[in-house]
Backbone:
């Protein structure tokens, strides 16, 4: 499981950069961030681990933005607010998950999300 992302008052660690691959390289199903060209297993493990951490950090951050967007879309002060069912349909979630994401987003915007994600896996 990915580690929780730091909150606004904590410094964010910068993971390895996710470099965009040229279209020609990305079209090759065997090509993945040039990992296939690394012959030294130690170097391969190090770079693959960097990429793993970078993808996890990117995923965690994207989920936070999803949650904040969901909370904004569900804001009762909006004349065009969406229901959790509407948000779930747009995002491809279940309605229960959408409700949790809305609450998580509200916590993030209030600054009260204490390293917890939208779903408690405990």
Residues:
């Amino acid at each position: 499981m990915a580690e929780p992302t730091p909150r606004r008052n904590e410094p964010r660690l910068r993971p390895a950069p996710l470099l965009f691959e040229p279209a020609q390289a990305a079209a090759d199903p065997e090509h993945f961030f040039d990992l296939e060209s690394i012959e030294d297993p130690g170097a391969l493990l190090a770079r693959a681990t960097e990429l793993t951490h970078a993808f996890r950090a990117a995923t965690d951050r994207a989920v936070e933005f999803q949650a904040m967007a969901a909370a904004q879309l569900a804001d009762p002060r909006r004349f065009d607010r969406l229901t959790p069912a509407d948000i779930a349909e747009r995002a491809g979630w279940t309605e229960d998950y959408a409700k949790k994401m809305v609450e998580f987003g509200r916590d993030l915007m209030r600054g009260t999300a204490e390293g917890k994600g939208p779903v408690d896996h405990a």
DSSP finds four helices and no strands in the chain. The radius of gyration is 18 Å. The mean pLDDT is 81. The first helix runs from residue 23 to 27.
